[in-house]
Amino acid sequence: MIPTETLKLTKMIYKVFDCHIVHFPVIHNRAGNITPVQNNLEVPFDIKRVYYLYDVPGGGERGGHAHKNLQQLVIAASGSFDITIDDGVNKKTVALNRPYMGLYIKPGIWRDISNFSSGAICLVLASEKYNEDDYIRNYAAYKAYVQDGR
Ligand code: TYD
Predict the structure, then answer these.
(1) 107 pLDDT band (50/70/90 cuts)?
(2) What is the pLDDT of residue 4?
(3) What is the mean pLDDT of the chain?
């Protein structure tokens, strides 16, 4: 059995300051631009899953959870929305509104996504396949999780 102290050390708990905006390349063309996004190059992890949120009703909110191990890169592929990231102590709100920029979210960060523009597409590149056990969906439980790990 792995001792509890060792398990605590393996918890991946980061701060909002460890999350950052990633600028992707833009290949400009009068006929329309291209932005390439490549594993371990523009994206600092191996992409195992891609999903996107769309048809979000006006005033709708998404997120409202943290992940224990998942890394994500969130891009406003179309339109705009705001992401508030929270490490249990510090909070930061980032407005995403360009298809060539993304927010890299480290594991152990709570996020709320709001203020979706009409027709917005929230594209998410993820380091792991879907796993409900990786989610923390209750904010009080999240606070206990990060406090225990610090
Ligand atoms: P969730 O990650 O909570 O969505 P959001 O962060 O956008 O609010 O997921 C919403 C529901 O969709 C939840 O029941 C799990 C399911 N889901 C999958 O089955 N596969 C996936 O890859 C994702 C992201 C969600």
Answers:
(1) very high
(2) 46
(3) 92
Give the residue-averaged pLDDT of 97-103.
98
How far, in Å, is the centroid of ligand 1 from the Cα of 1? 32
Closest among 88, 91, 56, 50 to 72, alpha carbons compared: 50
Query: What does CATH list as the number for 15-30+46-149?
Result: 2.60.120.10
Helix, strand, coil share of the chain (percent; to 5): 15, 35, 45
Task: Pick the residue whose CA is nearest to atom 15 on ligand 1.
Answer: 132
pTM (2 d.p.): 0.92
For ligand 1, the distance from its centroid to the CA atom of residue 124, given in whole angstroms, is 11
DSSP assignment letter at 150? -
What number of CA atoms fall less than 13 Å from residue 5's CA on the CB side? Answer: 0
Label residue 9 by pLDDT band (50, 70, 90).
Answer: low
- How many whole angstroms from 49 Cα to the centroid of ligand 1? 12
Residue 65 catalytic? Answer: yes
Active-site annotation holder among 20, 23, 65, 67:
65
- Cβ 116 vs Cβ 110: under 8 Å: no
Give the whole-angstrom CA distance, residue 101 versus residue 134.
26
Please give the pLDDT value at position 60: 83
